[in-house]
Automatic annotation (TrEMBL):
<dbReference type="GO" id="GO:0030435">
    <property type="term" value="P:sporulation resulting in formation of a cellular spore"/>
</dbReference>
<dbReference type="InterPro" id="IPR022476">
    <property type="entry name" value="Spore_YabP/YqfC"/>
</dbReference>
<dbReference type="InterPro" id="IPR038705">
    <property type="entry name" value="YabP_sf"/>
</dbReference>
<dbReference type="InterPro" id="IPR012504">
    <property type="entry name" value="Spore_YabP"/>
</dbReference>
<dbReference type="Pfam" id="PF07873">
    <property type="entry name" value="YabP"/>
</dbReference>
<protein>
    <submittedName>
        <fullName>Sporulation protein YabP</fullName>
    </submittedName>
</protein>
Length: 96
């Protein structure tokens, strides 16, 4: 019988095509997005995607998959350990 309490870690993979289409797996949550920035929580840490005309074209959190379209200028990772403590918000820690 399967143990339902085990958490399955998804493989994190990113495919960037012509700086315009980014297919990402291993996504735990989408924290925010707008036309200039997408902030994702992944299995490997926080991922910030910056650019212009960004759109989340496909979102399947049950499978941990996200597709982002637009002009992608940068991809930045930060560690996701330690958030939620010391009374600081995620954004204040991320933008120090």
């Amino acid at each position: 019988m399967e143990d339902l309490n085990t958490t399955r870690v998804r493989q994190h993979k990113m495919v960037l095509t012509d700086r315009g289409i980014c297919n990402i797996t291993g996504v735990c949550d989408v924290l925010s997005f707008d036309v200039a920035e997408v902030l994702l929580e992944t299995e490997q840490g926080m991922l910030m995607i910056k650019g212009s005309d960004l759109h989340v074209s496909r979102l399947m959190l049950d499978k941990g998959e996200v597709d982002v379209d637009g002009k992608i200028d940068s991809l930045t990772y930060s560690e996701n350990t330690g958030y939620g403590g010391k009374g600081e918000s995620l954004f204040s820690r991320l933008f120090k």
